[in-house]
């Protein structure tokens, strides 16, 4: 099992009786672990009303849920985790004079134990893991806003396999372009 597959299983997997199930609105992740499961990916009506469409699902008793302590390939694990539970966008800082600065930001969400395990492997200064309240409860997050750290993190996790749809969205933010005053 690769680090990328471990990241998918830990990020999207659940114990379903004696079977492990992976569900995602994006079929890519089920396809990426399909060789481990050796069964077909199918469209499920699980939470259709909530999600506005079917979730792609794969289930099998052949797969054991990995533990983060077993991860050897941190680049692959972090790539999967950040694709699934990360967000790259632009923030805006308003100045007293009415002007504003746009900046790129990377946010990585998840349980504090997962974020604490990933963080030392990322080429960035140590951050405080923040607690975040959401509509679904509480989670934790790491926030990156440095114009040098974000490209370094993206360069570090870059590799194959990867979900090209996510990477195409990230490329829209011209990572590495720095801060713009406007």
Describe the overall structure.
- It is a single chain.
- The protein starts with a helix and ends with a strand.
- The protein has helices spanning 3-12, 27-37, 48-51, 74-85, 112-118, 149-157, 164-171; strands at 13-16, 19-24, 42-44, 55-60, 86-94, 100-110, 130-134, 137-144, 180-181.
- It contains seven helices and nine strands; from the N terminus they run αββαβαβαββαββααβ.
- It is globular, with a radius of gyration of 18 Å.
- Strands 5, 6, 7, 8 and 9 form a five-stranded antiparallel sheet that branches.
- The longest helix has 12 residues, at 74-85.
- α1 (3-12) packs parallel to α4 (74-85).
- Residues 176-182 have low confidence and may be disordered.
- The chain folds into two domains: 3-69, no CATH class; 74-181, Endonuclease I-creI, CATH 3.10.28.10.
- The chain is of the alpha+beta class.
Features:
2 domains, four-stranded antiparallel sheet, alpha+beta, 182 residues, five-stranded antiparallel sheet, Endonuclease I-creI, 9 strands
Secondary-structure content class: alpha+beta
Total individual domains? 2
| Ends distance | 47 Å
User: Based on DSSP secondary structure assignment, what is the total number of beta strands?
Assistant: 9
What's the number of helices? 7
- Oligomeric assembly: single chain
**Order of helical and strand elements:** HEEHEHEHEEHEEHHE
- Superfamily (CATH H level) name of the largest domain: Homing endonucleases
What percentage of the residues does DSSP assign to strands (E)? 25-35%
Quick one: overall form?
A: globular
Give a quick account of the main beta sheet: strands, pairing sense, barrel closure. 5 strands, antiparallel
Backbone CA Rg: 18 Å
Identify low-pLDDT runs: 176-182
CATH level-1 class of the largest domain: Alpha Beta
């Amino acid at each position: 099992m690769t680090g990328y597959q471990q990241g998918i299983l830990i990020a999207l997997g659940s114990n379903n009786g004696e079977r492990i199930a992976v569900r995602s609105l994006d079929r890519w992740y089920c396809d990426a672990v399909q060789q481990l499961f050796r069964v077909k990916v199918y469209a499920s009506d699980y939470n259709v009303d909530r999600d506005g469409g079917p979730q792609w699902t794969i289930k099998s008793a052949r797969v054991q849920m990995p533990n983060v302590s077993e991860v050897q390939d941190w680049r692959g694990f972090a790539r999967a985790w950040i694709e699934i539970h990360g967000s790259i966008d632009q923030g805006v800082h308003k100045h007293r004079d009415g002007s504003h600065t746009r900046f790129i930001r990377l946010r990585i969400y998840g349980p504090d134990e997962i974020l604490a395990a990933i963080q030392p492997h990322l080429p960035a200064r140590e951050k405080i893991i923040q607690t975040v309240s959401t509509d679904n409860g509480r989670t934790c997050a790491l926030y990156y806003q440095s114009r040098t750290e974000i490209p370094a993190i993206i360069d570090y996790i870059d590799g194959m396999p990867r979900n090209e749809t996510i990477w195409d969205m990230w490329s829209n933010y011209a990572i590495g372009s720095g801060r713009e005053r406007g």
